[in-house]
Amino acid sequence: MVSKGIPEPHGGNLINRVLDSSSRERILNDDDILRIHISDDLASDVGNIADGIFSPLEGFMNYDDLIHVLREGRLANGLAWTIPILLDADYSTAVRMKDAREVLLVSNNVIALMHVEDHFRYDKMDIARSVYQTGDTSHPGVAKTLAMKDMFVHGKIDLVSRIVGKEGLMRYRLTPEESRKIMVERGWKSVVGFQTRNIPHLAHEMLQKSVLNFFDALFINPLIGRKKSGDFKDEVIIKAYEVLVDNYYPKDRVLFATLHTEMRYAGPKEAIHHAIMRKNLGCTHFIVGRDHAGVGSFYHPFAAQEIFKDYPDLGIEPVFFPVFFYCKRCMGIVSERMCPHPIDYRLELSGTRLRKMINEGERPSELLMRPEVVDVIMQHNDPFVP
To answer: Which of the four CATH numbers 3.40.50.920, 3.40.50.620, 3.30.360.10, 1.20.120.330 does domain 176-263+322-379 have?
Structure first.
């Protein structure tokens, strides 16, 4: 494989909208600034905007960008972008925010100063159909979109203070500036990003390690944030990867960090969004597997791979993988491209099967999952999102 070198951030410049200490102190002591409470999901978006994970965005989207994202999968300036980043509010709050012009966004602590430029309405069902390619309310992303408030508020943000998350969940978070510095210091020219919302099983491990035969390094970057019922809890995912990386990965060629944002389950469009974030974090390549960011049967299994044909200008190269599984005849982890044997020989570890095993007290086999990872799951009283 050709070594490319760490790519430029999406749009050419790494956004940094983090205030200096004197500005933060002044704002925090100003009791006259209107304070608006936002959700944890929006607080995570604010942090990702400020640190450049969402580069080139400097704030919540305006009407023009939203229209282009929904219709073309690009910002108004033509740059690839597939997921709307929106701040919703009820009508009276949106009016108050625009009248105030500057407001403090507050979660469990003061997060950011927002410079309000505009507010607007948009059909939420149209947003849902464009992003998720369905209006079915059983889709978690559609349901969340339709539950949003009626107005959207546009404006740039300046980060005042870091999000106060659950104890331990933020300890592996890296900003793009930090991750890129590590990659440069280690001399990596090609770095492959891996997105996950699950605990690692053996097929994941083999897939991840296979890229080390061709690229300098692997960037394991699990998503920490809101997920649907039945997915693994964030703390379980982190602990599972801790023991896996500590025991089974070459430390000089693997970087483990967490990405803090919500899981949208937008299938192919979210695959592009995931790739852009990893590009901003410094990755040259990005793994796209079967049914990436999918849910249920809403997307074709390889739709998330096919969409990359529409984005030759993305600036990060996708790496496509088939499904990996354990074959009892091959006696190892293989893929459909490697294994000639009938499906009867396969041991596949689906999320549904895993939940059933754990809920019934059954320990997953070492043919499917490392024992240290199984220990993490089995020792947790309730490993799944309710």
So the answer is: 3.40.50.620
